[in-house]
Amino acid sequence: xxxxxxxxxxxxxxxxxSTEPDVVRSVIRQLRVIIRALQGHSRTVERACGxxxxxxxxxxxxQRTPGLNVSDLSxxxxxxxxxxxxxxxxxxxxxxxxxxxxxxxxxxVRLYVTDQGMELLDRAPAAxxxxxxxxLQSLPKxxxxxxxxxxxxxxxxxxxxxxxxxxxxxxxxx
Length: 174
Known about the structure:
By secondary structure, this protein is mainly alpha-helical. Among the domains are: 46-124, Orthogonal Bundle (Arc Repressor Mutant, subunit A); 127-155. 61% of the residues lie in helices and 5% in strands. The protein contains eight helices and two strands; from the N terminus they run αααααββααα. Strands 1-2 form a two-stranded antiparallel ribbon. α3 packs across α5 (81-93) and α4 crosses α5 (81-93). It is elongated and about 65 Å long. It starts with a helix and ends in a 17-residue tail after the last helix. Residues 1-8 and 169-174 have low confidence and may be disordered.
């Protein structure tokens, strides 16, 4: 087997690992449940609102804290600033947000939800990222720490070459 084939297929199973195939299948099933729930909700959001779940989440964050800048919003969404800028361009084109520059410093851009954006939020279902965030925050700290460590190990074992993949929004398509 070539090096590129070995890299693509991931690490070889550890012969000393006594993980039962049933446990592996259970973890895969649970991950699928989470992914499908996010995908299904994203489709529901898009049908109901005409915008993606990521865009809806951004609107909610801006409604909660009017006047955020792009960097602050990026941190709240856990995405890269360039991804946030692209998302904001789409929201602005639809008249859902506006960018304002304070008179004192024109380099600063503050973000606000428009009246049209507020109307959309009034009729919108909950964002899936918000539901995932709520569920994670409801876990006891020790369990959340264990989950985080386990997911870190899983991501590491997958040998992903996309280190910044976690900064890209989930669009619910596929």
